[in-house]
Amino acid sequence: MEQLTRLRAVGLDPACAESVHPERQRKLAREGGRYTAQHLRAWSQLRRRATLVATVLDTTDRLTDDGVGLFDRAVGRMFRRAEAREEDTLMRDARAINDKVRLAGPARRRPDRGQARRRRPGWGRRGFSRLEADGRERR
């Protein structure tokens, strides 16, 4: 971040490089990053300035992209940690509930299907059929 602040303090407008072909600008930026300041002194003033401007603009773009990527990774890590914490809490709560159900289990056992059918009220349990209830005889 400190490097990005310093490069932005130079005050270069990115619009000044719009007339330069992007491939030429990348080549100048690569040269600027590869050569030392002593080597750049041997060049003409025009070439030296073009190389330095391309290098500063390219480095500014790279550092900005790196900062955005860093922020994105930090936010992603924060969300993954929050999800993991929530999942752990949910699992802990589920285990506690299961333990409580297990303790109360034998006393609160649900009847099987056969028992549930036998308990269900119907015409058969009352001792007469629907026909008899309607006043007709059973055949």
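The above is record 1. Record 2 follows with the same two-line structure.
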Amino acid sequence: MQFTMPAFEPVEPQIVAWKELLPDEQSLVMAAVRASDDAYCPYSNFSVGAAICARNKNSGQTKIFTGANVESAAYPLGRCAEGNAIGKAVNDHHRIFLAAAVYCKKAPGRNGTPCGECRGNLLEFKIEDYPVLVVYETDANGFPLMVARYTIEQLMPDGFCPASLGMLVGS
């Protein structure tokens, strides 16, 4: 048996120059940049920061939550930056995600996209498709120059989520 892959066009993110980002997007990205300073990564030196803009479904209040990666000598027990930011948002009852940003201090670009587990967790709290901003290129000091603007649907197409079970987000 020989399997031939049919031709298809992959969905690419929109690459945006820093100055072309909306002010709210710049604020979210800078929150992720600052969060990366709090990373505990003595084994990989791969510092990651994440920021999530989320809304409280009861009060309507919108807030930014940040997280940094935390490594463990017992390797699989570490936590991703996105997971830590998600936990803060959910624990504060902000369970409607509006946008997310990720910054990898050491490896900007495609290496900075969320892992599969984090993509699934980001999808869990989606009411509508929302942007996931990934710092794509930085200057010598780590300041963002170019940002990849994905949507959560691009990162996790046809993902299994509460809607797959006929449920509402955060219920």
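The chain has a mean pLDDT of 90.
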